[in-house]
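Question (not urgent): is this output format expected?
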Amino acid sequence: MKLNLKRPLAFFDLETTGVNVASDRIVEISILKAMPDGTEQIKTMRINPGIPIPLESSLIHGIYDEDVSREPTFKQAGEELARFLDDCDLAGYNSNKFDIPVLMEEFLRAGIDFDIDNRHFVDVQNIFHQMEQRTLRAAYQFYCGKVIENAHSAEADIKATYEVLLAQIGKYENQDWEDKKGVISKPVQNNIEALHKFTNLNKPVDFAARMVYNDEGVELINFGKHKGRAVEDVFQAEPSYYNWMQNGDFPLYTKRCLEKIWKRWSAKKDALRIEKQNPPKPEQTPRPQPKKIEEAKPIDTNMLEQLKMKFGK
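Got this back:
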């Protein structure tokens, strides 16, 4: 099938230092420009973001600081990109929420005029999500081939949910699945621990996922200006952040988890302070003790007899 185009449609994808639209930077951009005549043009560029690439991001897209150290900055490459995207509509996967906003931040930061007022945006993910419903009713129909009777009553919904899980296990058990790092596994098993891991891939610390665990089990902030930073590192750099969250509009369980991390961090900090105030005294080498000189024993009859036997008269 050929797209019916009146002007070029540029499909593009970004690799970035993180997922914060306002503060993260592009490290790679790839563009496929579909032309009205059916031809295609592809441009891929790596960009020096001007800031360190967090290890968590590098492990996902495989781009490290040394890979972009000699690449142009966005300010240097932006004019070329703007010309390549001139008169193009824009398309991508989750592009409306992430790729286009990040691209616009970079253009604005670099002072490059990139007008998007008269462009069309096609987000392929939105088509997928809106055409393939994610409701329990849709899942019950898809997996079980049934229609829920008395939909939205608690008992009917919970019975349908149970049937859907059984059907999912039957359909996907031992089926290969590839994660974002390219690791292939068989995550859907008739095993609750395995299902727990697969349905909590973002490893939330709290149910609201305001904090998540990284691969090393370290708690990270998962929102706002500190997104992606270790919670304890944020406490160290900005201790008032703890009080801001505790007094903010966050779920009580989130605050409880945060308090637990704060107490652990405070205890380590206090222990370190005490250790600095009372450094261990260097071990003293014990002085060698002089050998005890035994007093000479007086010669008795037995000793004389032994000497005579040994040396003769």
